[in-house]
Structure formats: structure tokens, C-alpha cells
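Blackboard transcription, Thursday session:
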Amino acid sequence: MSKLSREAVIRRALALADAEGVDAVTVRRLAGELDVTPMALYWHFKNKEELLTAVADHLLAGVARPAEFGGPWQTRLRTMVRTLIETMREHPSLPLLFHVAEKERIGSFTRATDIALGLLAEAGFSLEEGYWVSSYLLNGAITLVNGRPDCPGGIRPEEAEERRKQHRLALEALPEQEYPYISAYAETMRAAPDVERYFSFGLDLLMCGVEAMAARIAPASATPNNTA
Amino acid sequence: MSKLSREAVIRRALALADAEGVDAVTVRRLAGELDVTPMALYWHFKNKEELLTAVADHLLAGVARPAEFGGPWQTRLRTMVRTLIETMREHPSLPLLFHVAEKERIGSFTRATDIALGLLAEAGFSLEEGYWVSSYLLNGAITLVNGRPDCPGGIRPEEAEERRKQHRLALEALPEQEYPYISAYAETMRAAPDVERYFSFGLDLLMCGVEAMAARIAPASATPNNTA
DNA sequence: ACCTGAACACCGTTCAAGT
DNA sequence: ACCTGAACACCGTTCAAGT
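(Written on the board underneath:)
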């Protein structure tokens, strides 16, 4: 009974990353959890980067095959971005994982990019511009989830609350004359963060940029149903 | 003659990061370049993170005190973001540096945020929304510079060109029926990348999002000179 | 084909000791 | 105040060897 397989390693790595952060995923630690020698992993993966890339690929699979499609490009693109954000919200380690994995080598990322490029071509962007916009949306979604106020960087909620308090105290200690807006902002940090508002505002912000640029480039077809 | 000082360490660390990437900045390597024992650095810095945060702080100083100010909030905010982008373009290591440094602890970042919050309050955003927008702009600028086609991630131009070619070949190898847009995009990669267009498009994209959201929130004061 | 053991060349950091 | 020496507890990875 060969216990080890690519699949098993990926699942364990993801569980470990979600539980203790992506920094906890070391070759030795992961091997220990799988009751195996560190070097055993090198038979299944060329190196650590390929391992983490495989984890990212596994997670992005859901984004690459979007379910409910239809309607103008704006809503379809928005659905993709929302799906991406929701996937990452379920796996808080994913944002940091993207920083170490090479995005070009993630198969499901390539798949998702092709779909997005199609939608953006419909919006009037050139292929190159579409690629830039795709990357803007992907990275925007990543940093949005990574900066979520309840568990930034995928840390544990208790630690996040403590950090938030320390951050507030640090901001409140600043001279109010020199930092008038920061001081006022620190006041608003006394309340618990509204995570849903944070995400809906962030999604709107991201999509607003794309739609405004599309309207600038192709004003005539900005709304999808006026071509004839 | 005490050769070592906080300033000297920061300068060396920045030079090393720019020359060989931020990964090359290890405590031991940096100490070696300064002709000193690794532990000597621990007298001037609590740990490595504080060291890198100091480097980031040093670099962001120029953004925190913007020069040519005036005009409506849109152009002033755009100037800040452009300055930030230009600063990072001069130091390609900076984007990755932000990922390891804790942004909240960077003094010049706090200063820049206060200025931005003021401009965004003028635009009609609440303090909390303003903070989200600031973070959106900072991270957007970081990923924009980090993804520049001529030296993504701050790698050397020759290596970037080789990687770009490999990336193109990988995309061209994909089945054209399944990846129609990616395949067409790969064709455009044969030409040398237009870096200036990349950056101006990216800046427009970032600012478009903010301006469109501002117009949605406070349509009456979307243009600055119609309040009376 | 799949895994182990030992070793290599690194890390960041602590702590007592020097001057 | 400022720096050194030795040591600790880790890393990722290679390479020959086992089954």
C-alpha cells in the first residue's frame, strides 16, 4: 500500500497552509505529517515551488470552469472575479501562495485567463490590454483577500483582533495635528470590521476600473444591447 | 572609526536588493558586504524584518512629501500614485520588499496614507472607504511594477527576455481550439514589450476605478468646480 | 518505481563574552 | 555602546544506496 501520491501531498499541503499559514509548509514539516522522509516528496515534485504551484492549480480549478454564465461581459467577468474571491476566502492561505508560485505555470490560471481574455475582447480591449486587465483583476482579488480585516495574511482571527487593536493604538498615538485623517480613521477602528462591506466595496472598486476603461475605449458599445 | 550605522546598513541592503534581488539580502550576506559579523546587524536592528521595513521606509519618503501639489483631488491623487510608481521603477526590488515588510510600521507609508485619506475624503469617501482605496492604490501600484514586462519581479533584463520567450513558446504550444485568445495573445508577444504603454495603461486603470466609485458615491461633486 | 540515509550549503537568531 | 565567537534550530536540495 503506497500511501504517498501527488494528490495526497497536495491535500496535506493545503490543509497545513490553511491551518498554520503558508510559511508552515516546509518540505520537512510536510513530510513529517505524511509519515515519510523529506526526500520522498522529491520523487513526486521537482522542487518546493512546483509543489506549491500544484496546490494553487488545484484551488483555481473552480474559477477556470465558471458555472452560471450568460449576460453581458460585465456581469460574466464580475462573476469570475467574485468566484475567485470566494475561493480564496475559503482558503486564506491562497493569496500568499500566489506570491511564491509562478502564475504562468498554473494550468487552471491559463484556462481562466483565456476565458477572461474573450470577455475583455468583447469589451473592446486589445489582447495585450486584456492580458493587463486580467492580471490587474487577479492581483487585485489576491490583495483584497490578503488584506481582509478579520484575518489579514491568513492569520488566526484571535491574533488578527489583537493586531488590529495594537494597530489602532499605534495610530491613536500619532500627533493629531500632523495626522488628522489617520487619527479620525483610528476612531472608526474601535468598531468591529464589516467584512462583507469590505469585500463588496473592493469588488466594485476593481470592476469599476475595468468598466470605466472599457467605456473610454469603446463608448459606443459600453452598454451591450445598443449595437443594432 | 565606527564604520557601521543604521544608514549605512540600509544603503547597502538597498544596493544589494536592486543588484541581485531582495532574496539576496540575507543577514549573513549583508554583513559580509559590510565587512562585519552577522550579529553586528542585530545591534542596529531588532531583526531582519525591521531592517527591511527600514529600507522600505527610506524609499517611500519621497512619496510622503509630494512636490507639485494643486488642482482637484483626482490630479493630486494621480500625482501621488505616479510618484509611487516612478520610485518603484527606479528600485525594482521595492515591490517584493513590501510583501515581507509590515506596511503599518512604515512611517512614511503612514504619512502618505494621511495625505491620501484627505484627498479621498474630498472625493466623498468615508474614512474607512478611503483607507480601503489607499490600500487598493498602493497594492495596485506594487503589482503593476512587479509585473512590468521588461523585468518582472526585479530580475535582470536578459533573464526577463529569456523568460518572456519561454513563456511565449509555452503559450504557443497550447491547443488553439481550447485556448483561442491565449494563442492569439502569444502572437503579440513576439514584439518587444512597450513598457511606457504598460505603465500608462495601468495607472489609468487604477485611477479609473477610484474616480468611477467617487462619481457613484457623490455624483454632484464628481467634477470639482460645480459646488456653487 | 518509489523511498531512505547521510551529507552539503545554507538560513535567522540567541547568548555570553570581549573591548 | 558596539561588536565578536560559538552554538542552536532550522531550511531546501543532491546523490548514492536500498527495496
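Lecturer's comment: The CA atoms of residues 18 and 93 of chain B lie 5 Å apart.
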